[in-house]
Design goal:
Blueprint (H helix, E strand, L loop, with lengths): L1 H21 L7 H22 L6 H23 L1 E2 L8 E2 L2 H26 L15 H7 L2 E4 L1 H26 L2 H7 L3 H4 L10 H17 L6 H21 L2 H19 L5 H27 L6 H10 L1 H4 L8 H13 L12 H4 L15 H9 L1 H4 L10 H34 L3 H19 L2 H22 E5 L20 H5 L1
Antiparallel strand pairs: 1-2, 3-4
Helix pairs in contact: 1-2, 2-3, 2-4, 3-4, 3-20, 4-15, 4-19, 6-7, 6-9, 9-10, 9-11, 9-20, 9-21, 10-11, 11-12, 11-20, 12-13, 15-19, 19-20, 20-21
């Protein structure tokens, strides 16, 4: 507890120093608002380290995500002097009026973080799990019974899922005119999959099957053989290739790398801080590399090789991470603040309605609403960027709540978000079910895509993934026997401490 407190104090000092040094701007309130948001993010992370002691708890990871999106990104905007959630062509120069809008947006973010904290801590009255109890998760699952893969069910599930993904991507690549043109078209992902959004989801069954096998083999009593390790590694590699072909960096990082890390952390051995740093570094390389290959090489690097572009992006990480297109939810929130000040009406929940119509194919319903909040925001405020290719930009959970219900909606929506995140995690700490650990690993990534993106993409992906996991798990996994229980004591046994019979010794 003392170490965590000192770390929090040191981090807070650094954050306040950085904020104070870069916010020497005419708007007097922006430094205070930015410092408040930084303090709240660091406080959440410090509390999680001190009380949950789990580097993969949703609150600790969430504090880092919020710090990047709503502290480092505003700092980058102030230092670069440019802001804009769409193309560089649409960027605006930071003026005194924009600094005022940024200040307003930062206080809205502070309201959102407060709502998340209240929702996460509201269950403090419930019986708390043992501190660090997540470390015993594997032991509880193993004591509940031996779990093995069902060979026939697993083989059929993996083959069907693989064939489905292979046929879907073959048809897309063939229609694009080859692998090279298809990779170039991934920069226009929304337009590429328009009307065929189901093809972007074909990797989910294969991903669920692969992670189900990973979970069972990690929790089994005997050690993994070399052939099992190669099989699991190959299966995860195939899923990773599918994520890349779908063009979604979130699918690659949060949909595959994060669930595998979660499963290893809870079911095999707790990952040390050094290991997690290496995983994070690998995630950054994958994130930057995939974006360069599918986006920058198409628009900005026609005279350079992709390898040179990746190297250049890695050498300029601030610009290629917090300065890139993926970190623009704050910019979108500033745009919404400006629109609200200009009298834009509230959407009153309309951006959430496409969640209900998601499962209906567009071929059946020709007038089906287009996308969710991301599509609405881009089409309304950046129509040239949206264009015929229907390229979308991210509005964020806080931005969508604000556009629909105002500041009050941010508090209520973020409270519910924090409550659900706490509920999922506390259920994990108390479970002895491998199926729930698998569900948690699969759904954790959607918690963070919701923070950055819109509810339409995150919630629909979450319930499809959860539904497939619940259907496929009993087909692929079977318990072999019940756990060994202590024999009932005899009606007239020996006195405590007396000699044991040979039968009792064998038992």
């Amino acid at each position: 507890m003392r170490v965590a407190a000192w770390l929090a104090l040191a981090a807070l000092s650094v954050a306040v120093g950085v904020v104070a040094s870069v916010t020497s701007v005419p708007a007097p309130g922006i430094a205070a608002a930015l410092s408040c948001v930084a303090l709240m993010c660091i406080a959440l992370g410090a509390w999680s380290l001190a009380n949950e002691r789990d580097p993969l708890s949703p609150l600790f990871i969430l504090s880092g995500v919020l710090l990047v999106l709503y502290v480092l990104r505003p700092i980058y905007i102030l230092t670069s002097g440019r802001i804009g959630p769409a193309r560089a062509l649409d960027d605006r120069q930071v003026t005194i009026a924009i600094e005022g809008s940024m200040t307003h947006a930062l206080w809205l973010v502070a309201l959102g973080i407060l709502g998340i904290a209240l929702g996460y801590f509201v269950r403090r009255g419930a019986p708390a799990p043992e501190l660090g109890g997540w470390r015993a998760l594997r032991g509880r699952i193993r004591s509940a019974g031996v779990i093995r893969v069902s060979p026939d069910g697993a083989l059929v599930s993996v083959l069907l899922a693989f064939l489905l993904a292979a046929v879907a991507y073959w048809s897309l690549i063939r229609q694009a005119g080859g692998f090279g043109p298809y990779i170039n078209e991934l920069s226009l992902r929304s337009g590429l999959f328009y009307g065929r959004g189901y093809l972007a989801l074909v990797t989910i069954p294969l991903k669920v099957a692969a992670l189900c096998l990973v979970a069972v083999m990690l929790v089994q009593h005997r050690r993994l053989s070399v052939s099992q390790k190669w099989f699991l590694g190959g299966l995860v590699l195939v899923v990773t290739i599918g994520d890349f072909l779908s063009g979604g960096r979130a699918a690659l990082i949060l949909g595959t790398l994060l669930p595998v890390t979660v499963l290893v952390h809870y079911l095999r051995r707790p990952l040390a801080a050094r290991t997690l740093v290496f995983v994070l570094a690998g995630a950054v390389v994958l994130f930057v590399g995939s974006r360069v290959v599918t986006r920058d090489a198409v628009y900005e690097g026609r005279q350079q090789s992709r390898a040179a572009l990746v190297q250049q992006a890695l050498l300029h990480l601030p610009a290629s991470t917090v300065g890139s297109h993926e970190a623009i939810p704050f910019d979108s929130l500033v745009t919404l603040v400006d629109a609200s000040n200009a009298g834009a009406p509230l959407q009153l929940g309309r951006t959430y309605l496409p969640i209900l119509s998601f499962l209906v194919p567009r071929a059946v319903w020709h007038g089906k609403p287009v996308g969710g909040a991301n599509a609405w925001f881009t089409r309304t405020y950046y129509p040239d960027y949206y264009g015929p290719d229907r390229i979308e930009t991210s509005v964020s959970m806080i931005g969508e709540l604000y556009a629909n219900f105002g500041a009050a909606g941010i508090v209520v929506g973020c409270f519910l978000f924090g409550f659900v995140a706490s509920l999922l995690y506390r259920r994990l700490l108390a479970t002895s079910s491998l199926r729930y650990v698998l569900l948690y690993a699969l759904l954790l990534g959607y918690v963070f895509t919701l923070v950055r993106g819109d509810a339409y993409h995150s919630i629909t992906g979450a319930y499809l993934t959860a539904g497939l996991a619940l259907l496929m798990y009993p087909v692929m996994v079977r318990p072999l026997r019940s756990p060994i229980r202590d024999p009932a004591p005899p009606a007239y046994g020996l006195a405590a401490g007396g000699p044991a019979t040979s039968l009792q010794k064998r038992q």
